[in-house]
Input
Amino acid sequence: MVSISARIIEQGGYDDIAEWILKSKVDLGFVTLPASPGLDITPLYADPLMCIAAPGFEPENKAYMTVEELSRHNVVLQGESYGKDTQRLLAAHKVSVKSNVRAIDAATILAAVESGLGLAVVSQLALQNYQSTVQVFPFYPAESRAIVLASLSYEGLAPAAKAMHKHIVETVAAWARQKR
Output
């Protein structure tokens, strides 16, 4: 008799997930690029990065935000291993920001921004599960984070893990087509 167990683990940042895969604690996990060395990755989705602001805030360009403009405001940052998307965005544009507030999750970031403590960079997917009065502005030029499905080796996955991998890739592709 074959015994297969699947667990959904929601705690941990992308660094934690990569470590679990590398230590063979889990077979598959969602991470963002750049992924840790030694992981086999399958691209899934380009998740747009957005700038969120308190009600009443108006960016210079009215309908969008630039990273350069972001650098002139106080920014609510995420904790070290959770804020890598924002860190990569700032590094790519060679800008730094001032920050008086650090948060670990999207709900806290939204509350801080809503209270007027600064602007923040969040992914569009992270905003889907929250009701808030924050304003959401796309970046120009468009910025995104690449979400990938990671494993130690696709070829080395057990048949059940390969089937799960295939199911995830197909499901995300169908979902992404619907979003267009």
